[in-house]
Amino acid sequence: MGKLVKYLVAAVLLISSFSLAGFSDKASAATFIKPVNSNNITSPFGDDYLNGEYRYHTGIDWAAPEGEPVVASASGTVKAINRDYWSNQTPFTGYGNAVLLQHTVNGQTYETLYAHLSSINVSVGQNVAQGALVGGVGNTGYSFGNHLHFELHVGPYDGFQSNAVNPLPYLNEVIEQEPENNYWVYHDSFSNTELYFETYDEALELVNESYPSAVIIRTSDKKQVYPRYEDNVANPFTYSVHKERWDGADGKEGYFPVVESFKYKIHADAFARENDLLIRNIANDQEVNYNGQEQYAVFHPAYGYFAEFDTRDQAINYTARYKDAVVIDRQSWKQTWPRTINDDYIGDLFNYSIYTVGSNSRVESFKFEWNADQFVKFENNSNGENYEYREL
Question: Using CB atoms within 10 A of its CB, is residue 233 exposed (0-12), middle (13-18) or buried (19+)?
Fold first, then answer.
């Protein structure tokens, strides 16, 4: 009996040693943890809408009270911080108070970004342990409520967020997410309110009870699933989306069969962009834009053309997020904003001017060389002109 007990104790100790070794290895793997104590995901990773406009969201937003502790998702080093409300310094454009951490996990470099903070508790170059305080939840930068915007990048942050991945699969805890946002109830009178539902019937119930003129968008393919013509709703569509346009021999224009139809332009535009289609206003039979390109584009040398709008005022308002950005008219490729009141090309609004070759006859001026060069190529190729640009 004594030998049996001795063998059993030895076996238990052996099994325990394997179990403890396995636990230790797992703990030393430096897995990522959720950076804030919140299960309220207000904006998921990927396809998303902000204030009624489609965007590809490169992180996760967790809503939490102001000052709620934000901790390092993994051990690492503080690579960069930003303490300005606005900044054009990559990667902090529109992110307000933000911290960028760099990690090495099993030989792989990762970087995590913590944005819109109310406070910052670390400094550049500082080594931080997993779970160490980074800052507090806030509402700084381009933000509409207290929340943490969290990004995870496989590899270094390249300024274009091309390495961003969905953080959820990397976190070592199961997060109780909100129901799937499969259907979006939208009306332009409450476009800033995000009303998502898991099932079509739930969305339709809200429309029938409270918002009879609203529409339902299926988020998986961005199609308007209600109303359709068969729903017997007056004027269910304002815009139709087509594959291509043709010009007849008699001078008349036409459109190939309708691919989809929408009531609101923002939905038609999101669908057209993703599928490389054009949009037509059904009421006046006019093309709204071609291949998802509006007339006015916002340009910044760090990002290229990264936002497009129907009106100049919309584009100008958007530039508030990006210091030094300009607005270009796609029809003429001219810099339409900023300009001086009397078009005197002085100050830091313009750095390059367009001249007729061999003369001092100035035609246009631009802030960035890229836009000046584009204008010259466009005019020389399409209009047979002979222009050149010179640095001021």
Answer: middle
Q: Residue 310 burial by CB count (10 A; 0-12/13-18/19+): exposed, middle or buried? A: middle
* φ, ψ dihedrals at 391, nearest 5°: -80, 135
**Cis? peptide before 338, omega within 30° of 0:** yes
- pLDDT (0 to 100) of residue 71: 94
**End-to-end Cα spacing for the chain:** 98
Q: What count of other Cβ atoms lies within 10 Å of the Cβ of residue 120?
A: 20
Q: Can you tell me the distance from the alpha carbon of 330 to that of 297, in angstroms, rounded to the nearest whole number?
A: 7
Q: Which amino acid is at 218?
A: R
Residue 348 CA to its chain's centroid (Å):
29
pTM above 0.85, yes or no: no
> 41-170 sits in which CATH class?
mainly beta
Count of C-beta atoms within a 10 Å radius of residue 258: 13
CA distance 274 to 221: 9
Task: Provide block-wise average pLDDT over 10 residues at a time, the chain (392 residues).
Answer: 38 34 32 88 76 72 89 92 59 78 89 91 91 90 85 82 84 53 80 74 90 87 87 85 64 67 84 76 66 68 68 77 78 79 50 86 86 82 77 82
Beta bridge partners of 246: 254
Q: What angle do CA 292, 295, 299 make, to 5 degrees?
A: 95
User: What is the spatial distance between Cα 223 and Cα 236, in angstroms, rounded to a whole number?
Assistant: 13
**Cα dihedral sign for 104, 79, 166, 97?**
positive
Token reading at 278: 């054009």
Please give the radius of gyration of the chain, using alpha carbons only, rounded to the nearest integer: 27
CA distance 188 to 17: 63
Distance of CA 162 to the CA centre of its chain: 12
User: Which pair of tokens denotes residue 234?
Assistant: 């007056």
Q: Which two tokens stand for residue 320?
A: 């508030």
